[in-house]
Amino acid sequence: MSTQSTSPSGDAKFNVCRFLRLPQLCSTCVAFSLVADMGTLRGAIGNWSMSFWCVCFAMTFIIALVECCRHPSSFPFFWCNISVTYACYAALICLSASIIYSITYVHFMPYGPNWDRAIAATAFSCIASMLYVIEVAGMRAWYELKEIFFYVHTVRALLKVLETFVAGVIFAFLSNTSLYLHQPALEWCVAVYSICFIPAAVVLLLGLAEWKYMPPRPFSIFQLVLSLLSVLLYISALVLWPLYQFSEEFGGQPQRPSDGDCRDELTYDMCAWDQRLAVAVLTAANLLVYVADLGYWARQVSVGTEDQPRDSQEVYSPNSDIL
């Protein structure tokens, strides 16, 4: 079934560019500039956070440039879904960078010019996160929703965004291969994260590409099976990762050491024990998301429906009500 060939209004695009894009660019630019000005004192955690802010700045700049250069009538559904989905990820990225940077690095910094820069960078990162949230929440008001279907506003899309984002943060911690190498049970956990991430990312991309007119019931059953498999795999990871990382019987370390990179003072790398704990917590969090996803698709199969764009369910008249 075809969709209506419509696009966001010119006024809506102008409002987004004028009232959101510029503050987003400024806040992310200031955040990474302040940390970059700290030089070698920013450490690995500062470099990690700065790279996140740089990515958000670059992507926001590209999106703003495209929106300003292209005529409103040339905006397809795909581009609208991409920009809103990016805003979801950017909000989560900036929020995560703010939390991790503040509790693992800024918290241990001595008072001084660098501490002021770090606090200011964290504040601007939080501001950027709020601006991206405002963009996602306000998109319904800024665009003609009676004519445009925003895939990312559906429950299934938001769950996929959360699943892929949490997995991405887990992969960032797992860049320290010493956490799991030479231990088959822990290597299995890493495989679980990868196995579950790939289909979630594929389904999200297919939704953004508007490949949404599949037969509803077969697609719902497929998603139900996929979600059930992901839940079972994550349960195994949630059992094995803490068991082999924190149980002395399996060679783990139950308590946080007070020496090395885990001492309670400023260090330039995140404590390995903290990384293990972060992966365990994120595994539990992503398991909850997958359980919610499983419950959603179980309901779709039992009811026999799933989220559909309104123009696939009814024909709009010029005076149709907006959701």
UniProtKB/TrEMBL annotation:
Pfam families: MARVEL. Residues 12-144, 151-302 form the MARVEL domain. It is found in: Membrane. One of its GO terms (cellular component) is plasma membrane. It comes from Bison bison bison (North American plains bison). Its main location: membrane. The chain crosses the membrane at residues 48-66, 78-106, 118-137, 149-173, 185-209, 221-244, 277-298. It comes from the Eukaryota. Belongs to the MAL family. It is a multi-pass membrane protein. Keywords: Membrane, Repeat, Transmembrane, Transmembrane helix. PANTHER family: MYELOID-ASSOCIATED DIFFERENTIATION MARKER, MYELOID-ASSOCIATED DIFFERENTIATION MARKER MYADM FAMILY MEMBER. InterPro entries: Marvel, MYADM-like. The lineage of its organism: Eukaryota, Metazoa, Chordata, Craniata, Vertebrata. Signal peptide: none annotated. This is Myeloid-associated differentiation marker-like.
